[in-house]
């Protein structure tokens, strides 16, 4: 009890800190306040504080309620202030991932540093490390953000089930060719990540790329089977090889004709799968059989 008001010295310091921070943060707009809070929370982590969600950062509607045990600021959140700050944290994280996606995809994983990502996102490097413990964590978040949109894009390209599957497959490859005409197209981010990190087979990004490709292949097999194509699983793998080959050759040659040629081959393969299910005993040499069915969709 050695404070001027008969209270422990630490309590007086904490109250002074709370008042000072409250006064400062009341004067900031919401976005600036969120960035400042992120930076302070990151500083807490660097000085030994425990980070658990937003539990390090003390936020109320317009101010703070902070204590400082063990030289780390621990804050309690409440009510609408907590909700707004969680949204601000989410927005900051999303902004960082968006910046990483643009830079990693355009320039490569190893060519881009966290400084460039932080600058592009409009945050400090300290804030970036508050949301992501390492560059590898950020790479994983970048790939996770690309996963669902990539599958959804191919799903749109394949179209609905109202058309014959060979025609739908052909349409998918034509859409891929059109997409590759975009000036900033750099191929498949998952494939490029796996190639860049080929010397690190245990890297999380390599595992994520493999998982993405497996699920994409399973989706293709499901679509083929639903359309009545026989041997859907091995045929899906063949289509995967055609997709990957088309992408790599378009990257090398900058010629989208490779996707069109791959689409011709894919449609032929799928047409044969349809005929095999309808008449598994018909020989391939029969002019009215496999070759004729394939030509019907590829001519």
Topology:
Layout: H1 9-26, H2 30-46, E1 66-67, E2 74-75, H3 79-107, H4 114-121, H5 125-131, H6 135-158, H7 165-180, H8 189-196, H9 204-226, H10 232-253, H11 257-278, H12 290-298
Antiparallel strand pairs: 1-2
Helix pairs in contact: 2-3, 2-5, 3-4, 3-6, 6-7, 6-9, 7-11, 8-9, 9-10, 10-11, 11-12
Characterize the structure shown:
The protein has 299 residues and is mainly alpha-helical. It has two domains: 9-133, Arc Repressor Mutant, subunit A (Orthogonal Bundle), CATH 1.10.10.60; 147-298, Tetracycline Repressor, domain 2, CATH 1.10.357. Helices cover 68% and strands 1% of the residues. It contains twelve helices and two strands. It has helices at 9-26, 30-46, 79-107, 114-121, 125-131, 135-158, 165-180, 189-196, 204-226, 232-253, 257-278, 290-298; strands at 66-67, 74-75. Strands 1-2 form a two-stranded antiparallel ribbon. Mean pLDDT is 78; it is low at 44-82 and 282-299.
Tell me the structural class.
mainly alpha
Question: What is the quaternary state of this protein?
Answer: single chain
Which series of helices and strands comes N to C?
HHEEHHHHHHHHHH
Report the mean per-residue pLDDT as an integer.
78
How many separate helices?
Answer: 12
The top-level CATH class of the largest domain is Mainly Alpha
Q: What Rg do the Cα atoms give?
A: 28 Å
Largest sheet: 2 strands, antiparallel
């Amino acid at each position: 009890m050695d404070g001027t008001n008969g209270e422990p010295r630490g309590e007086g310091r904490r109250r002074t800190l709370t008042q000072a921070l409250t006064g400062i943060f009341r004067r900031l707009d919401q976005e600036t306040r969120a960035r400042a809070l992120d930076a302070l929370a990151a500083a807490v982590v660097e000085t030994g504080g425990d980070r658990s969600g937003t539990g390090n950062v003390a936020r109320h509607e317009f101010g703070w309620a902070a204590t400082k045990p063990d030289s780390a600021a621990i804050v309690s959140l409440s009510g609408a202030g907590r909700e707004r700050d969680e949204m601000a944290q989410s927005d900051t994280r999303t902004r960082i991932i968006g910046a990483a996606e643009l830079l990693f995809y355009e320039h490569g994983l190893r060519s881009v540093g966290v400084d460039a990502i932080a600058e592009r996102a409009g945050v400090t490097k300290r804030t970036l490390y508050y949301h992501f413990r390492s560059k590898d964590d950020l790479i994983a978040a970048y790939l996770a953000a690309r996963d669902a949109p990539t599958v959804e894009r191919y799903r749109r390209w394949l179209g609905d089930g109202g058309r014959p599957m060979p025609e739908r497959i052909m349409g998918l490859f034509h859409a891929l060719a059109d997409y590759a005409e975009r000036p900033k197209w750099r191929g498949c981010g998952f494939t490029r990540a796996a190639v860049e990190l080929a010397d690190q087979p245990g890297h999380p990004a390599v595992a994520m790329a493999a998982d993405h490709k497996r699920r994409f292949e399973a989706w293709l097999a499901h679509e083929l089977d639903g359309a009545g194509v026989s041997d859907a699983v091995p045929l899906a793998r063949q289509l995967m090889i055609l997709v990957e080959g088309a992408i790599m050759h378009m990257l090398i040659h900058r010629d989208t004709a490779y996707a069109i040629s791959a689409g011709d081959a894919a449609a032929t393969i799928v047409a044969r799968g349809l005929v095999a299910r309808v008449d598994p005993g018909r020989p391939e040499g029969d002019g009215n059989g496999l070759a004729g069915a394939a030509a019907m969709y590829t001519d």
